[in-house]
């Protein structure tokens, strides 16, 4: 639920052309970090896991939002 909600917020930022730093490297880092965390069965507190997921979701959503064509409605 966290990922989808924050991804929608990131998408809205992208649609509004609000720049975020390090989007592409952040997406790459999310794949590596989350993959390693799953492979190593890292057990984090719920709040920390949600925060990590939230940051990565914001970056993913922003990338999708900026890819939407200017003439296309984001919805």
What does this structure look like?
Keywords: Membrane, Transmembrane, Transmembrane helix. InterPro entries: HupE_UreJ. By secondary structure, the protein is mainly alpha-helical. The chain has one domain (2-67). The chain has helices spanning 2-15, 23-39, 46-67. The model has no long low-confidence stretch (mean pLDDT 90).
Strand composition percent: under 5%
Instruction: Quickly count the helices.
Output: 3
Distance from N terminus to C terminus (CA atoms, Å) equals 19 Å
> Would you count the extended β strands for me?
0
Helix and strand sequence: HHH
Averaging pLDDT over every residue, what do you get? 90
Radius of gyration from the alpha-carbon trace, in angstroms: 13 Å
Q: Low-confidence segments, ≥5 residues, pLDDT <50?
A: none
> How many domains is the backbone divided into?
1
Q: Globular, elongated, flat, extended or rod-shaped: what is the shape?
A: elongated
Helix share bin: over 70%
- Structural class call reads mainly alpha
Query: Can you summarize the main beta sheet?
Result: none
Pfam family, one: HupE_UreJ
Keywords: Membrane, Transmembrane, Transmembrane helix
Transmembrane segments: 31-59
């Amino acid at each position: 639920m966290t990922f989808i909600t924050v991804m929608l917020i990131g998408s809205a930022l992208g649609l509004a052309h609000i720049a975020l730093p390090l989007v592409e490297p952040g997406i790459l880092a999310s794949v590596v970090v989350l993959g390693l965390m799953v492979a190593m069965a890292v057990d984090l507190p719920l709040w920390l896991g949600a925060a990590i997921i939230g940051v990565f979701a914001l970056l993913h959503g922003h990338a999708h939002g900026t890819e939407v064509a200017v003439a296309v409605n984001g919805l």
